[in-house]
Amino acid sequence: MTAIDPVANLSTLIRCPSVTPAEGGALAALETMLKPLGFAVERVTAREDGTPDIENLYARIGTDGPHLMFAGHTDVVPVGDEAAWTHGPFSADIADGQMYGRGAVDMKGGIACFAAAVARHIEKHGAPKGSISFLITGDEEGPAINGTTKLLEWAAAKGERWDACLVGEPTNPDHLGDMIKIGRRGSLSGTITVHGIQGHAAYPHLADSPVRGILSLTQALMDPPFDGGTDNFQPSNLEVTTIDVANKAVNVIPARAAASFNIRFNDTWDADSLKAEIIARLDRASADSALRPGRPPVRYDIVWSERPSHVFLTRNNALIASLSGAVEAVTGREPKLSTTGGTSDARFIKDYCPVVEFGLVGQTMHMVDERVAVADLETLTRIYETFISRWFGHAAD
Ligand SMILES: [Zn+2]
Fold it and tell me: How many other β-carbons are positioned within 10 Å of the β-carbon of residue 241?
């Protein structure tokens, strides 16, 4: 039966050079895998001024609920130094039990395994007792403007509703079965600018050094900690990512200093409460005289990044139990339910249905010589197949 072998599926996908924003033949290849299984496949091009057009794919088998969505992306990051690869980045060469290629783990491998799992499920049980869909974007590694968000809006507008979603991103740190992601921290960035008065370094009373101000303000952002973590999340953490004065003269006090920061926050906060806390800290620090005795408060302004990512936590037990049970049944490992790491497209999907993430071992993602253990492809396919059966079993209860 078509698509039943995850290794063949993956080598086909890796040979498509789909570096964002190029489709590279990868969605066409996936369409070729899914159509013979009975999927209705739609290719959706999203456009927005100032960004490249992006091809996406939505495929569904079945017309009734319950409806399980698999989400992911066929685009890949650039290969980097191609000469440094042991095997070509689009070769899908297999050596020492590893298949090489950009996207092997992030995340063509996840798509290849899920397609194989669905094919096996259909071969054994016939069409699913409900619906399965693939929501696949070509714009996850790029600006993510013409990708998952628009595809979700497009599908929802034509009446698509989902009961649960599995994202196939690589979630395991070391071994297949280590970790399922059941939520993600939020992310918020901002830039503070402190306005001083330029002057001679020998006559500081005639000037106002913004460097003193920016040090007080950034200190206040880093200490004390924002919280101690929660049951499901590690403590929120703020990093000052750059401090910029751009002053080349040692005898000049500059007029301006700026600092940018990024905070990864847990479910103690939302973007608004966090902004209020940050401003309260900055206002207190601006009046602190330790570095600026006898001076009026620091004059500063702050610009927030346009699109903060919201924190989320999935509590859907049928979904989590079906997946962790499948992982344990196939690998013998009890996966950790985690909310660590960066953001992913799950942050958009959570507005439509409960979402969890589970895929391959992520160690080589985005690196030269990205590769996957061929044995892991078979194991992940069996996990996905077991998950599909269990989830439809749960959902029918
Ligand atoms: Zn990815």
Answer: 11
